[in-house]
Predict the 3D structure of the following.
Amino acid sequence: MIKAHISATALPDKFAVRYRMRDHQEIGSTAILEEQVLSIHLPTASKPDSIQLIKVSPAVETRTSPEPSHPERVRISGTGFVCGDGLVATNYHVIDGGRTWKIFFPSESKSFALRLVVADKANDLALLRLEPDSGALPKPIAVIPSTGAELGAEIFTIGFPLGDLLGRDHKVTTGVISAKSGIEGDPRVLQVSAPIQPGSSGGPVLDGSGRVIGILTSTLNADYLYSKQRHIPQNVNFAVKSEYLLMLLQQQSDSRTYFPALAGKARTDQIAELLGSIGQISIEE
């Protein structure tokens, strides 16, 4: 279910919004982008309200005056993982704004250029193709529907949170599936308790058998929730359900040879096998 349609206006930080309420009534409103937080005003009949949205992404460089042309700037943007024959999945917001993209697999000390294959902006997903100079491609990780995932089931994630600060090695976090929907019952996402940070975006959410059931995308805006309820959320994070990635993969004709079954193996052994297929994405702007 699509909750809102957001359209650009003549002003760079102002947007027109068509928002669907819980009763399915669609209302018109406006949104303002300030310091990477999108605030949507909701003029409901009972009382005015607002929501704020934020994505997990590195801070955007702010320029107060025009600058002369410079060589392209390269920055670490997020996480990606191999999920098809030479295909890498990540969030759309991880690659948005880039001229070119690269992925670095630290466990193999290999880098590959990436070429965009398909983007699903509505669900914050993108598929890119590895452009190897030589050598074998990383093996794809199995992706399964999230429908079989149960509340409270243990999950783990592998990625590169705060990559500029914490370095280029893989980081592992663990948690559980806290809910099978997002804000106001958004059915496209899972809520997970695994801690995430900027740089985690695009990383896989893996079940107990080492299979992808979601793609990390965002965290709840702590400042907004505190302003509304005087409460700071703890580990309220969201992942796009794997079904939306599977739909993109089904559009490709690639044959996929997945890892042998990791079920029953110790978590440390599963992680050791998966590391070679999860990399850090950088973009050239």
Remarks:
- The domain at 76-137 is CATH 2.40.10.10 (Thrombin, subunit H).
- The CA atoms of residues 17 and 29 lie 5 Å apart.
- Residues 242-250 form the longest helix (9 residues).
- The chain has five helices and 17 strands.
